[in-house]
Amino acid sequence: MEYRPGLEDIPAAETAISYLDLEREEIVIRGYDLIELARKRTYTDVVGLLLYGKLPDEEGRKALEAELLKVEVPEAVYTLLRALPLSAHPMDRLRTAVSALGAFEPDLEDPSPEAAQRRGLRAIARSAAVVANLERVALGEAPRPLQGDTFPEAFLWAVRGQKPLPEEVRAFDQSLIAYSEHELPNSTFAARVIASTLSDLYAALTGAVASLKGPLHGGANEAVIHLMLEAKTPEGLEALMREKLARKERIMGFGHRVYMRRMDPRAALMKETLKALAQSRPEAALWLEMGERGEQVMQECKGLYPNLDYYAALVYYVLGLPIPLYTPIFFAARTVGLVAHVNEQLAHNRLFRPRVIYAGPRGLTL
Question: What whole-number distance in Å separates Cα of residue 23 and Cα of residue 9?
Answer without folding.
Answer: 15
